[in-house]
Amino acid sequence: MASNFVRNALGIFYSSSSGVRGIGYEPTPSLVHDREEKAREEKAREEKEENVREEGCEVGVEPPVSPDSPAPPVSPDTYPLNARGMQVVDSLFYSPGVRGRPVLSWKAFEDMMGSLGFVEENGEGTRRRFVPGPTAQERGWLATINFNQPRNDEIPLEVAREWGRRLAGRYGWSSQTFVQE
C-alpha cells in the first residue's frame, strides 16, 4: 500500500491516507537556498579580501599611484555667486546658523542656474528643463535636470529644500559648494 505524503506550508510532511505512517520535517527549498547563497557570498567576500592582502594593499586603501599615470582633473571646490545667488543657495541647502528665506522666487532660482552655466528650456506645461551649457559642462555638470515652475512664481522653503536634495544628488552640490563674489 503506497502512502501519499504531502508537505504543508511549514515544510512538515504528513500522510494524506487514513493512517499516519510518519511525520517528518524538511526545510522549504527557499530557506535552504538562502542559507547556501549567503554562505557563497561570505566565501567570495573572504577570497576577495585575501586577494587584496596578497597584492600588498590593505583592505579599503587604494594602491599607490605611479608617477607615470596622469592625474585626474582637479575641479575647484567652490564656485562664485552674487549675493542674490547666495540667498538662493541658503534656501536650497541647509547650513547651520543660516536661515533660508521662507519663500524663494522663481526668477532668483532661474538667475542662479543661468549664472552657473545652465540654459533653460521649456518643457511640457510648467516643466522647465535646465540643460548644461558649455560653462557647466566644463565644470563636469553634464546631466539635465527638470523642475516645475510654480504658478505664483514663489517656491516654498520645503519645496526649495527638496530641489536642493535633487541638485545635491545630481551634481554633488551643497551649501559649501558656493561662495559669494
TrEMBL record:
It comes from Diatrype stigma. This is Uncharacterized protein. Residues 64-74 have a biased composition (Pro residues). Residues 32-56 have a biased composition (Basic and acidic residues). Residues 24-74 are annotated as: Disordered. The lineage of its organism: Eukaryota, Fungi, Dikarya, Ascomycota, Pezizomycotina. It comes from the Eukaryota.
